[in-house]
Design a protein that fits this description.
By secondary structure, the chain is of the alpha+beta class. The protein contains eleven helices and eleven strands.
C-alpha cells in the first residue's frame, strides 16, 4: 500500500491550449504557478486480488471521478512504459503490476471547480503508482525522490501524460513548465529572497463546471484572440519572474490579473463562447482591486483558474488580517501557504 499527498498548483501564467505539433500534452506556452502546501489530493493505492488481469477500482473511494476520468486514469496507469523507463534509469528494476488495485482518493477542495484538482489528482496518482511499481525498493525510490530535484522533474513529466498541469505539483513554492516540456522548480523563498504568499481561495461555486478544462483547451483555439496568445503569455512570464525577484507587488498584481483576464477572454470569444466567471467572481475582483472599505491592504494578487472561484494571494505576514476580513464578509474560503510539492504520506508493504 502506498499513500501520497499532491498539492494543487495555481497558475499565475496560464497553460491554455495544447501544442498539436509538439509532444503529447505539450503546452502552447510556458506556464508558471504557485504550489500550495495544504490543499490538494490524498491518494492510496493497494492491491486487492492478484489472481486477475491488471485492473483498477475506485469503489469505496471518498471521491470517485466521473466515468471519463476513471477511464483516463486507467489508461494512464496501464501504460507502464514511461514509469518503467524512469525507474530503470534510476537503477530500480520495476515490479510488473498484476491483479486488481484499489484507488482511494480524497480532495480537500471541491473537484471540477477550477481549483486545479485535476492537476493534484494526477500528480498524486503518478507518485503513488511509481511507489507501487518500485516494489520492495520503495524506500530507495522515496529517498531519491526526496533528495534529487532532477529525478523529481522526470517523474513530473510522466504525470503530464495524464494531465498537463499535474507536472507543476511536484516542486515549490513556484514552478515553471516550459513549452519544451521541461519542469523547473523556481528557487525557494529563503534561498532566492522571493516573498512568501498565502492563497485565499474564495469558493464561490462548488459544483462541477459545465465545460471541463480538457474541452476548454480545444475551444480556445477557435477564438480570434488565440493568435498571439503564446507570445503574450511568454512575455508576461518573464516579467512575473523579474517582479518576484524585485518584490514588486504592484507589478505582480497587474500582470497576474491581466493574464487571468486574457485567458477568460479566450473563453468568452470561442465558438461557441462559454463562461466560468459569475457575478460574485466579478464583484470580488472589483472589491479587492478597488479597495473595498475594511480591506487589510492593497497588496493582494488576484487570479482565476478555469472556474468561477477567485484566488487572492497575500503576503504571509498579512494572512491573519485577510482571514478576518473574509470571515467578516461571510464568503466561504480555504487558505494555504506555499508548499514544496507532492510527497509520500505513509507507506507499507
Amino acid at each position: 500500500m502506498v499513500i501520497v499527498f499532491a498539492p494543487v498548483n495555481i497558475a499565475w501564467i496560464k497553460y491554455m491550449g495544447k501544442n498539436r505539433s509538439g509532444p503529447v500534452h505539450g503546452p502552447t506556452n510556458s506556464s508558471f504557478s504557485m504550489t500550495l502546501a495544504d490543499l490538494g489530493t490524498t491518494t492510496t493505492i493497494f492491491g486487492l486480488d492478484p489472481g486477475v488481469p491488471l485492473s483498477f477500482t475506485f469503489e469505496g473511494s471518498p471521491y470517485v471521478p466521473p466515468e471519463t476520468g476513471r477511464k483516463k486514469a486507467e489508461r494512464f496507469l496501464s501504460d507502464t512504459a514511461p514509469f518503467f523507463a524512469i525507474l530503470r534509469e534510476a537503477g530500480i528494476e520495476p515490479k510488473a503490476p498484476k491483479g486488481l488495485y484499489s484507488i482511494h482518493t480524497s480532495n480537500s477542495v471541491p473537484a471540477g471547480t477550477g481549483i486545479a484538482t485535476s492537476a493534484s489528482g494526477f500528480a498524486a496518482l503518478t507518485l503513488a503508482w511509481f511507489g507501487v511499481l518500485s516494489g520492495d525498493r520503495l524506500s530507495e525510490f522515496r529517498a531519491r525522490y526526496d533528495a534529487d530535484p532532477e529525478f523529481r522533474s522526470k517523474i513530473a513529466r510522466v504525470s503530464a501524460l495524464g494531465s498537463g498541469s499535474a507536472c507543476r505539483s511536484f516542486h515549490g513554492p513556484f514552478v515553471e513548465w516550459k513549452s519544451s516540456g521541461e519542469v523547473i522548480g523556481f528557487p525557494g523563498a529563503d534561498a532566492a529572497g522571493i516573498e512568501k504568499f498565502v492563497d485565499f481561495v474564495l469558493i464561490l461555486e462548488s459544483h462541477a463546471k459545465a465545460v471541463p478544462s480538457s474541452e476548454a483547451h480545444e475551444r480556445v483555439r477557435t477564438s480570434p484572440d488565440f493568435e498571439g496568445r503564446p507570445e503574450r503569455a511568454e512575455r508576461r512570464l518573464a516579467l512575473v519572474k523579474q517582479a518576484l525577484g524585485l518584490r514588486d507587488r504592484e507589478t505582480l498584481a497587474r500582470l497576474v490579473l491581466e493574464e487571468a483576464v486574457d485567458m477568460h477572454g479566450l473563453f468568452h470569444t470561442s465558438v461557441p463562447p462559454f463562461r466560468y466567471q459569475n457575478a460574485e467572481s466579478e464583484e470580488w475582483i472589483r472589491r479587492v482591486r478597488e479597495g473595498d472599505p475594511g480591506l487589510p491592504s492593497r497588496n493582494a494578487i488576484l487570479t482565476l483558474d478555469a472556474g468561477a472561484n477567485v484566488h487572492v494571494f497575500v503576503p504571509e505576514e498579512e494572512a491573519s488580517a485577510w482571514s478576518g476580513y473574509f470571515r467578516t464578509s461571510g464568503v466561504r474560503f480555504e487558505s494555504s501557504r506555499a508548499g514544496e510539492g507532492a510527497r509520500f504520506v505513509d507507506t507499507s508493504q
